[in-house]
Design a protein that fits this description.
Largest sheet: 2 strands, antiparallel
Helix content: 25-40%
Organism: Thermosinus carboxydivorans Nor1
Pfam families: DUF2292
Protein name: DUF2292 domain-containing protein
Number of domains: 1
Structural class: alpha+beta
Strand order of the largest sheet: 1-2
Number of helices: 2
């Protein structure tokens, strides 16, 4: 689903959710972040961080 450019991000997600997503992005050095959505609401954020040994 595409998001209209005229929409404000606060119209899509509450500020608390954006803060959690931004915090997850800042903490992951290398890996992935998965956002789980149910009934149009973010219910979970998963962080999968990888550690490179070489």
């Amino acid at each position: 689903m595409a998001v209209s450019s005229s929409m404000n991000t606060s119209d899509i997600l509450p500020p608390r959710v954006w803060e959690k997503i931004e915090a997850a992005i800042r903490t992951v050095g290398y890996g992935s972040i998965t956002i789980i959505v149910q009934d149009g609401r973010v219910i979970q954020i998963e962080i999968n961080e990888k550690i490179k040994l070489v």
